[in-house]
Amino acid sequence: MSEPCCSVVELRQYTVHPGTRDTLIELFDREFVESQEAVGCQVIGQFRDLDDPDRFVWLRGFADMAARRQALGAFYGGPVWKAHRETANATMIDSDNVLLLRPARITSGFNLTGVARPPLGATTIPEGILEATICSLADPADESFAAVFERDVVPALQAVGAPVLAYFVTEAAVNDFPALPVREGENVFVWVSTAAARTRPLPAAMTSRFSTPPQTLRLSSTARSRLRP
């Protein structure tokens, strides 16, 4: 997991009106990928939640918090979003379920080096499933928590064919683009892996610090998602 793409990552979960998710995905993949990347965002991945037909999930990254503020201002104040925001917003019930994250280690972010995005007009849905596991903690994840994860969970998932692609902790910096709210006052540890055929219980050194049971999102990449199984 060398050369991670981004030191700040948003995990965004949108609740959409029934029957409109594919409308939003088609619009997003056509209009909101290159236009965001042109102003400094990294559109890491777009997904259908396999357990909720009314949820669209995506990951967006930035070089740092200052770059995030500048890029978001440029995109949401720019012509592409203004041209299509009414159509996009018409599909959405809620877009505020957003976790602001940073890699737990310098090298634990997504490594997208050499990974090409399918071109405009692509329609083939990648085979396989990704899983995003969200652990809510009573206190911020520290060195010891990450060390237990690396020692016990990473090799266990690797052994069952579900390598961990990246892992993150809460970015504690203030959200300095308040027009886009994020979940505040929470401590999370998040990892993304390919889906495991079977799993083992998480170590007690991790579960003893959970404030709620972990949430696992089973994700199917869209046709133009750069991140895929």
- Mean residue pLDDT: 95
Helix content: 25-40%
Name the CATH architecture.
Answer: 2-Layer Sandwich
**Percentage of residues in DSSP E strands:** 25-35%
Predict the CATH topology: Alpha-Beta Plaits
Number of strands: 8
**Uncertain stretches of 5 or more adjacent residues:** none
Q: What is the 3D shape?
A: globular
CATH top level class name? Alpha Beta
Can you put this structure into words, describing what you see?
By secondary structure, this protein is an alpha+beta fold. It has a single domain (8-221), classed as Alpha-Beta Plaits. The chain has six helices and eight strands, in the order βααββααββαββαβ. The chain has helices spanning 21-31, 34-37, 65-76, 79-91, 143-159, 204-207, and strands at residues 8-16, 42-49, 55-62, 92-103, 130-137, 164-170, 187-194, 215-221. The protein is globular.
In short:
With 229 residues, the protein is of the alpha+beta class.
